[in-house]
């Protein structure tokens, strides 16, 4: 029979090889809120492979049944499907648990025995190891998996899925890459950036490359500037321990926002496969010069009003060290130095405790070269703006000039909108459902490659250095506001941030 | 879920359309967050006496509600049109930062004599530029014919048809110029997906060229699903099927594969309660087999290797139920499955009259 399975054509759910998935950090917050519910949703929809097992690993000693109870509660609370009791019970039967410290070599021997015990006779199942732990354990887990022979690919595919952050700066990312690559080949490593699993992020590629009307405009001749925004209206909550170490730049800009920038600016790949898509993204990253300190703004929220209530400033949040200089707001002005984008400012901003939660890309076109219409008595003609919204109202909006009804030729901007919620019947799967499935199928298109991570840190590292050296003062902004006023200067003359 | 309603006796399509527009304008003026869904039009033609059953199924399709549903209730002896229109919203009061998606529904009571000119009643009520799907579960082929030029998709259910060959022939006839979504085909989807997965590992894929027998177990009224499943296998694997013959309630026959013949059996399962398939067994000439059967929490998969070793798993998956199947049918109306038409052609070879 042919190399290609003739039965898969036309099917929506493609076959997934038999897999034993091991989650390190299986009782952690990410596992409970995202990974376990995602696995249930896949089971509910019939997307898991027929032979599937899950082994949970964390430090605490507990029985399989205790872990199953934790998983049951997490799934009931967070799954997007109402759990079907039969499916849930059948899935939980596939769960087992081993408790050991991540640096305990003997634990990995037990893990190997457990993984091998789950293999069907003569037919080893693929192995996927999901590292959902604190980042400092990524290296030791990878090397100890290899030391226990769990990276052995004879008879089965072995993959390691690594959560973000991959390093905390360029040096640590390279050090981690070196450690991981001594144990696993690049094709076995799946670095998660869950933004890439979101339908609306993937839609950027469809939007750009499945519609002929935008591509002729998608360059420096027609685009004035681009704003990429990822704002949140909430504070840091209970994440002070992590957040104070990371800050806004590492938390969102280095990974998610640079990925959005890549998808916006990349050249069309010849095919939608992992190599070609990621090759094009890397070219974009490599064309970005690190911004000078003056092209960056860092800020921290102070006491303010959010949702009508007075809220604490960052320094008053529980767990934040006294006098912390960690930024809760970051804005950068970048340029992609290539033929298509040269001279087009691309400004990124992200922050906590801003006026509104929104993730969007606003592409502002240049103004029309000649204005034939009178503009008195109206807002007038404004440049076209294309808004790609990732959240909360996923969709695309195009700002156009239109005549105001009446005897005079007066113009004002109107919006032409496409909204996922009104145009598609389907409920979007959670990003983690797509990514877990892709990792089990060996499709790395939506994962970040090693050279991408390196290129991302190469842009961000000099900014971290400048901020650490105090070259850029820490601005403050009132909680619930649009962010620090200092960020306005990043856009240049006659430009302003879109209102949040 | 909230609702706004308009109704009028002895009305006209123009009045219904104006009422819908007014309802939408009023609602949008209250808050821009009320946004009409714009996915597809669904036109349903039903006997008024059995409309409740169809309405219940439509209510239960969950998130796969069409954006505008036009339900035509055919009532013997009726001479005039009565209509009722409603808007239903996700949220009675818009939630800040979220769209409240609005769906429109029109019910028209009409007489049999209206059916020939049904297009003139329905066409003004369709949202332009959206795909239009026709579903006529109680027959009324004249109504579907009348709407044919205005639709892109016809929703059918060959399961339960009095004559399977006739149902499959009708599907083929509609498929000349419409995209056919046959719920009988969708009932076979999980089975097709699982069989494809079972033969996906390279060491098993070789077995696809050695299949010697296929048995499909089904509810007594669901032989269309079974035939479409076999037709799918035949068309994907290049078999030339012959007409099956009845042996009691079971249909048996053969298909000519590249190397050898494949024995085909469609076997009714009397105790089966829900429509569709109950199980599938595929055997190869070298002694391998894969059997899938319904089980709690999914499908029970039994594999036998050529050395006789037997493995049993449950392939996880929740039952979609009849409402889920209808919802899936609505969703599929916007997709295109390139394997249905060849499967239908092969199924017709097997179930020739």
Instruction: Give the biggest beta sheet of chain B.
Output: 9 strands, mixed
For the CA atoms, what is the radius of gyration of chain B? 23 Å
The SS-based structural class of chain B is: alpha/beta
Weakly predicted, low-confidence segments of chain B:
none
Would you report the number of β strands of chain A? 17
Element-by-element helix/strand order of chain A: EHEHHEHEHEHEHEHHEEEEEEEEEHHHE
Instruction: State the distance separating the first and last CA atoms of chain A.
Output: 57 Å
CATH architecture heading of the largest domain in chain B: 2-Layer Sandwich
In one word, what is the shape of chain A? globular
Based on Cα principal axes, name the global outline of chain B.
Answer: elongated
**Biggest β-sheet of chain A, characterized?**
9 strands, mixed
Oligomer: heterodimer
């Amino acid at each position: 029979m042919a190399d290609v399975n003739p039965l898969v054509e036309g099917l929506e759910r493609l076959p997934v090889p038999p897999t034993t998935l091991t989650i390190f950090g299986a009782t952690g917050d990410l596992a409970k809120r995202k990974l376990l519910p995602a696995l249930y949703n896949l089971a509910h929809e019939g997307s898991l492979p027929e032979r599937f097992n899950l082994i949970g690993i964390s430090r605490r000693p507990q029985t399989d049944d205790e872990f199953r109870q934790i998983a049951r509660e997490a799934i009931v609370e967070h799954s997007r499907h109402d759990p079907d009791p039969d499916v849930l019970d059948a899935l939980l039967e596939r769960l087992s648990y081993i408790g050991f410290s991540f640096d305990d070599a003997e634990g990995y021997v037990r893990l190997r025995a457990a993984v091998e015990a789950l293999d069907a006779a003569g037919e080893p199942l693929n192995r996927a190891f999901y590292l959902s732990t604190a980042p400092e354990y990524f290296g030791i887990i990878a090397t100890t998996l290899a030391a226990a022979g769990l990276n052995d690919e004879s008879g089965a595919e072995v993959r390691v899925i690594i959560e973000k952050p991959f390093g905390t700066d360029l040096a640590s990312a390279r050090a981690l890459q070196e450690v991981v690559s001594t144990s696993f080949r690049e094709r076995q490593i799946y670095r998660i950036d869950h933004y890439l699993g979101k339908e609306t992020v993937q839609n950027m590629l469809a939007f750009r490359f499945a519609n002929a009307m935008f591509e002729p405009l998608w360059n420096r001749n027609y685009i004035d500037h681009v704003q990429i925004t990822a704002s949140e209206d909430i504070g840091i909550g209970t994440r002070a321990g992590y957040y104070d170490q990371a800050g806004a730049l590492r938390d969102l800009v280095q990974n998610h926002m640079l990925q959005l920038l890549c998808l916006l600016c990349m050249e069309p790949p010849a095919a939608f496969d992992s190599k070609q898509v990621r090759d094009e993204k890397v070219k974009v990253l490599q064309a970005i010069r690190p911004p000078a300190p003056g092209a960056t703004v860092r800020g921290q929220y102070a006491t303010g009003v959010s949702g009508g209530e007075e809220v604490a400033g960052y320094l008053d949040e529980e767990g934040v060290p006294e006098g912390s200089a960690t930024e809760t707001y970051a804005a950068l002005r970048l340029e992609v130095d290539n033929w298509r984008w040269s001279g087009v400012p691309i400004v990124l901003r992200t922050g906590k405790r801003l006026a509104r939660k929104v993730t969007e890309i606003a592409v502002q076109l240049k103004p029309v070269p000649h204005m034939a219409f009178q503009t008195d008595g109206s807002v007038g003609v404004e440049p076209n703006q294309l808004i790609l919204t990732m959240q909360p109202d996923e969709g695309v909006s195009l700002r156009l000039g239109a005549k105001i009804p009446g005897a005079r030729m007066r113009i004002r901007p109107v919006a032409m909108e496409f909204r996922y919620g009104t145009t598609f019947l389907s409920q979007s799967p959670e990003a983690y459902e797509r990514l877990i499935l892709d990792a089990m199928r060996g499709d790395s298109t939506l994962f970040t490659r090693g050279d991408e991570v390196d290129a991302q840190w190469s842009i961000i590292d000099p900014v971290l250095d400048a901020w650490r050296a105090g070259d850029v003062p820490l601005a403050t902004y009132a909680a619930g506001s649009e962010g620090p006023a200092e960020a306005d200067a990043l856009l240049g003359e006659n430009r302003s941030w879109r209102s949040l | 879920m909230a609702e706004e309603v308009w109704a009028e006796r002895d009305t006209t399509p123009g009045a219904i359309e104006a009422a819908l527009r007014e309802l939408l304008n009023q609602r949008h003026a209250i808050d821009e967050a009320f946004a009409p869904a714009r996915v597809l039009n669904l036109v349903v033609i039903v006997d008024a006496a059995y409309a409740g059953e169809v309405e219940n199924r439509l209510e239960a399709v969950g998130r796969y509600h069409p954006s505008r549903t036009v339900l035509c209730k055919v009532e013997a002896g009726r001479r005039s049109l009565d209509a009722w229109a409603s808007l239903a919203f996700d949220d009675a009061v818009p939630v800040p930062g979220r769209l409240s998606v609005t769906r429109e529904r029109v019910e028209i009571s009409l007489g049999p004599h209206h059916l020939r000119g049904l297009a003139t009643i329905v066409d003004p009520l369709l949202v332009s530029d959206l795909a239009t799907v026709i579903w006529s579960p109680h027959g009324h082929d004249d109504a579907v014919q009348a709407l044919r030029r205005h639709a892109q998709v016809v929703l059918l259910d060959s399961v339960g048809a009095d004559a399977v060959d006739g149902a499959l022939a009708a599907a083929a006839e509609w498929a000349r110029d419409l995209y056919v979504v046959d719920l009988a085909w969708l009932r076979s989807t999980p089975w097709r997906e699982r069989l494809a997965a079972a033969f996906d590992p390279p060491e098993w894929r070789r077995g696809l060229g050695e299949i010697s027998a296929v048995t499909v177990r089904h509810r007594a009224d669901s032989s269309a699903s079974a035939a479409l499943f076999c037709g799918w296998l035949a068309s994907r694997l290049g078999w030339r099927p012959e007409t099956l013959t009845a042996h009691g309630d079971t249909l048996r026959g053969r298909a000519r594969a590249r190397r050898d013949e494949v024995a085909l059996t469609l076997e009714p399962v009397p105790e089966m309660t829900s429509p569709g398939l109950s199980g599938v067994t595929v055997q190869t000439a070298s002694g391998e087999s894969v059997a899938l059967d319904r089980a709690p929490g999914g499908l029970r998969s039994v594999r036998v290797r050529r050395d006789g070793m037997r493995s049993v798993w449950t392939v996880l998956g929740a039952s979609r139920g009849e409402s889920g199947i209808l919802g899936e049918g609505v969703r599929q109306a916007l997709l295109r499955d390139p394997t249905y038409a060849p499967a239908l052609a092969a199924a017709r070879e097997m179930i020739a009259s």
